[in-house]
Amino acid sequence: MAHGSVITPEGLEALRAELERLETVGRQEIAERIKTARDFGDLKENSEYHDAKNDQALLERRITILGAQVRDAVAVEVDAAADVVGFGSIITVLDETTGAEATYTLVGSAEARAGAGRLSADSPVGRALIGHRAGDVVAVQTPRGPRRYRVVRLGG
């Protein structure tokens, strides 16, 4: 496997778009806030100025992080026809412990949002599911204790 963070092409494009937005619109908005706050006078007592400067530092930190993620990312095409769970697979699983069914896309950690159906392939559940087929039951130790997941189906 290549070095860097594995990511879907769509995930890489989303990171690039966010970086572009922050480097342009985000920086312009912060600069305007700082300029407006400066016009309020004494900077030592000016909370709007200090808030804007703090937000500027956070914005620059986020830009640095996103820049590194984009630079280090390795986009991996997804094999939609695969019959085993792998990176990029869309899988529906049944949590046999709770009876809850969920559909996830296995993605890189930079684009993972479990609540949005994007499960990190590097997470304990993601790693355990890789290589399995529809019908397989997988036991996983999670932060909430042991779970058994049945792969209901692959594909959307």
Structure explained in plain terms:
By secondary structure, the protein is α/β, with parallel strands linked by helices. The protein has two domains: about 70 residues, Transcription elongation factor, GreA/GreB, N-terminal domain (Helix Hairpins, Orthogonal Bundle), CATH 1.10.287; about 60 residues, Roll (Chitinase A, domain 3). About 40% of the residues lie in helices and about 25% in strands. The strands form two sheets. Strands 5-4-3-7-6 form a five-stranded mixed beta sheet. Strand 3 and strand 4 form a beta hairpin. About 20% of the residues are buried. The mean pLDDT is about 90.
| Overall pLDDT metric | 88
Overall 3D form = elongated
Contiguous uncertain segments of 5+ residues: none
- The succession of helices and strands, N to C, reads EHHEEEEHEE
Query: Total domains, how many?
Result: 2
Looking at CATH, which topology of the largest domain would you report? Answer: Helix Hairpins
CATH architecture of the largest domain: Orthogonal Bundle
- The assigned structural class equals alpha/beta
Number of contiguous helices: 3
Helix content: 25-40%
Our Rg estimate from Cα atoms comes to 21 Å
Question: Total number of β-strand segments?
Answer: 7
- Report on the biggest sheet: 5 strands, mixed
CATH superfamily of the largest domain: Transcription elongation factor, GreA/GreB, N-terminal domain
Strand content: 15-25%
CATH class of the largest domain: Mainly Alpha
Strand order of the largest sheet: 5-4-3-7-6
Ends apart, CA distance between termini: 26 Å
